[in-house]
Write a structure and sequence with these properties.
Elements: H1 19-28, H2 38-55, H3 59-76, H4 79-91, H5 94-105, E1 122-131, E2 138-146, E3 154-162, E4 165-172, H6 175-187, E5 192-196, H7 198-209, H8 223-234
Antiparallel strand pairs: 1-2, 1-5, 2-3, 3-4
Helix pairs in contact: 1-3, 2-4, 3-4, 3-5, 4-5, 7-8
Length: 235
């Protein structure tokens, strides 16, 4: 099902009952350009997209709502809505990225935040498997840096899996502190930490995120970002 982006009057929404929801997203986007860096912008975008996806009754409804949202952001034509469109184009659902990018390009005369070009531009680093016991499942930790030379700001995606389904998705800004805590836990014999191949970690993560079963509600805010990061390693 294609996602449309043509400007419209607001009267031809595919899901007109959600008009006020879309307007709330437009208002919220006003604060997006003030965020300090691409990671926080991606987290903000992921949170908004997660809320929309979690509320959708089925995949077809989700696609219709995304098409409406992209068109409404385009119609609002503000710096914040352009930034939101750029975020969707970078880390949103694969089937919505082209439409969001086209809508953002049509607003190129509006100012963009200084981090706009860095959105989604991450290089994968080491990956780790943390095991805390049979009742706690496995935690996959995948490190990333912005920029192609692996020298930009550092962060990690930490996903707890139970029976290969995600139960927790956390984005970690202070990777050094997280790994220091993990080493202390190893010394206390509370867990084990072992390096894993990037491809193996990403493949397991993609399989966990694509089971077709909705994840726990708490996973939705970081879900779009997690899917993007898993795909980066597989690309």
């Amino acid at each position: 099902m294609p996602v449309r982006t043509e400007p419209h009057s607001g009267r031809d929404l595919a899901l007109p009952a959600l008009r006020e929801v879309y307007r709330a997203y437009v208002r919220a986007a006003g604060g997006l350009p003030a965020l300090p860096d691409p990671l926080r912008a991606e987290l903000w975008t992921s949170t908004q997209l997660g809320a929309l996806e979690s509320a959708a009754p089925h995949a077809a409804g989700h696609r219709l709502a995304m098409g409406d949202l992209i068109a409404e952001l385009h119609r609002a034509a503000a710096p914040g809505t352009r930034a939101f469109l750029l975020g969707i184009a970078a880390i949103g659902p694969q089937w919505a990225r082209r439409a969001a990018g086209k809508a953002a390009a049509a607003l190129r005369d509006l100012p963009a935040p200084p981090w706009a070009d860095a959105l989604g531009q991450v290089t994968p680093g080491p990956a780790w498997l943390i095991q805390e016991g049979p009742l706690d499942g496995d935690r996959l930790v995948l490190e990333f840096r912005y920029g192609p030379e692996h020298t930009g700001p550092h962060h990690a995606l930490a996903v707890r899996l139970m029976q290969d389904s995600p139960t927790e998705i956390v984005v970690v800004g202070d990777v050094a502190a997280m790994m220091a805590d993990a080493r202390k836990a190893v010394q206390a014999e509370l867990c084990t930490v072992q390096p894993v191949a990037q491809g193996a970690a990403a493949g397991r993560l993609r399989a966990a995120l694509d089971t077709g079963t909705p994840p726990p509600e708490d996973c939705y805010p970081a879900l779009a970002l997690a899917r993007h990061r898993a795909a980066v390693i597989g690309s």
